[in-house]
Amino acid sequence: MDHGRIRARVAELGLTLHGPHPPHDPLDAVVVHDGIARTSGQLPRIDGVLTCLGRLGDTVSVEEGRQAAQVCALNALAVLEVALGSLDRISRVLTVTGFVSSTPDFHEQPAVVDGASKVLADVFGEAGRHTRSAVGVSALPRNGAVEIEVTVALSE
């Protein structure tokens, strides 16, 4: 696998791609179609273990959630790298959808999902700027606090 300039940038930033953590069958980790690649939702897993459980506004702080969102985004890069052969094939991050397990009175979902947005902007520079949704939900799979999906455009 060609690790290329984007993987070098990840290392330069002191970041680690802990995945890939593929979803269960019959789901795909990444779907590539017509120059677009989209990941399945990525949970905050490191070495297969969920690192941030619970809900924001209850047992999880905004900073813990932000760090979990960063791990989710890095896990998205890990599955993209496997699917694409190299992260250098990504020409632009298009959108990030962030789901934040939250209590009804928690309203800082954007601050949590900023963890994912910032790491993608740091890794890809201007091409890492993207549209985004930060959605509060009552629960996520396996009691994860955050789940992130990433959609990217591919170079020819």
Question: Which features does this protein show?
Answer:
single chain; 60s Ribosomal Protein L30, Chain: A; two-stranded antiparallel sheet
Could you explain how this protein is built, in words?
With 156 residues, the chain is an alpha+beta fold. The protein has one domain (4-22, 29-154): RutC-like (60s Ribosomal Protein L30, Chain: A). It has helices spanning 4-12, 62-84, 109-124; strands at 30-33, 36-39, 45-46, 49-50, 90-101, 131-137, 146-154. The chain has a 5-stranded mixed beta sheet, covered by helices on one side. It has a two-stranded antiparallel sheet with strand order 3-4. Helix 2 packs across helix 3. The radius of gyration is 15 Å and the shape is globular.
Order of helices and strands: HEEEEHEHEE
Major sheet details: 5 strands, mixed
Q: What's the CATH superfamily, by name?
A: RutC-like
Overall shape: it is globular
Summarize the structure.
This protein has 156 residues and is an alpha+beta fold. Helices cover 31% and strands 26% of the residues.
Structural topology:
Elements: H1 4-12, E1 30-33, E2 36-39, E3 45-46, E4 49-50, H2 62-84, E5 90-101, H3 109-124, E6 131-137, E7 146-154
Parallel strand pairs: 5-6
Antiparallel strand pairs: 1-2, 2-7, 3-4, 5-7
